[in-house]
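Thread: "does anyone have the structure for this chain?"

Original post by V.I.:
We have the sequence but no experimental structure in hand. Need at least a predicted one for the grant figures.
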Amino acid sequence: MGRFLVDIPEEDVARLDALARADGKSRAAVLREAVADYIAAESKQGFEKYFGLWERHGSTVDGLDYERKLRGEWPDVTDVSPPKKKRSAA
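Reply from O.Q.:
Generated one for you, tokens below.
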């Protein structure tokens, strides 16, 4: 197990000690749990990490509506065919 020194404001230390006392744990145990929870939250994969991101940051815009609006600005290319490839006379 690694050890490290960290500076924490006194009011946070007092609050940490109160939480540890209330749970019947040591300060170190509460800090280990906090670090483990932080790492678990940061390691979420895929859409779980980003789902609801706009809403969490206070946006009221519907993401799908926003995407449709942006795509509506694109030119219509349904009747454009891809260029034909030239064949070499080999």
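V.I.: this helps a lot. The chain has a mean pLDDT of 86.
O.Q.: and Residues 27-42 form the longest helix (16 residues).
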